[in-house]
Design brief:
This protein is mainly α and 61 residues long. It is built from 2 helices and no strands.
């Protein structure tokens, strides 16, 4: 598993964007929704809590 600290800012942005699209299209969030209903905020919270349901495959080239 890749932690948030292992991701570049570009990888983090790609993951958050992909998950935010899923949430905006009706995917159930994996975290409790607080004050913000913004899909990006929800995706960021999922990343912070380590429950982002996306896999990162590392290329060993």
């Amino acid at each position: 598993m890749v932690s948030e600290e292992d991701l570049t800012k570009f990888e983090r942005a790609r993951l958050l964007g992909a998950r935010a699209i899923q949430i905006s299209m009706g995917a159930k969030p994996k975290v409790e929704i607080g004050d913000s209903l913004d899909p990006i905020d929800i995706a960021y919270k999922e990343l912070k809590e380590g429950v982002l349901p996306l896999d990162v495959i590392e290329d060993d080239e």
